[in-house]
Amino acid sequence: MKLILAIVAALMPINTVIAGEYQPGFSSTRTCTRNEYREEYVPGTKKSPGYVRHWNETVEVPCDSRTVKTNPTQNHGDTNDCSEGSLIGGLLGAGLATSGSRGKDRWWAIPAGAVGGAMLGCQIDGG
Question: In Å, how far from its chain's centre is CA 24?
């Protein structure tokens, strides 16, 4: 019985499993509107002065590309990641500082070599 349920679940189409993601045959439309303030001058006569008529009107306008909702998975930020380069550079810098220093100088040479190597490794890796 479990085998039959597994076969049926595997053969089901994906769009019936994910409800609401895609419905073939339907289209989506989007209209963009803007409220515009309008005025019209009505000229007067000798007996009746002129006046200004005003109202708000909803006008359909072309949709601006900046107001389009973007896919939240898109990332337009900086994609340079230098974590691998800084790790390797830090290890190599600390190793070189260890081999090049003697005695009491090691307490400051190893951290300085690690920091300098990390900065250099990050720049080489593309950060």
Answer: 28
Nearest alpha-carbon partner for 88 in 56, 127, 61: 127
Maximum mean pLDDT: which of 35-39, 99-103, 111-115:
35-39
Residue 106: predicted pLDDT: 76
Where do the structural domains in the chain lie, given as residue ranges?
83-125
Max intra-chain CA distance, the chain: 108
Angle between helices 83-100 and 106-125 (to 10 degrees): 150
Kindly report the backbone phi and psi dihedral angles of residue 54, in degrees, each rounded to the nearest multiple of 5, phi listed first: -135, 150
| Cβ neighbours for 50, distance < 8 A, ≥ 6 positions apart | 41, 42, 43, 44
- Taking only the tens place, the pLDDT of each residue in 81-106 is 777 788 888 888 888 888 888 888 77
Pairwise CA distance, residues 105 & 98, whole Å: 9
Of 35, 39, 28, give the one whose Cα is nearest residue 60.
Answer: 35
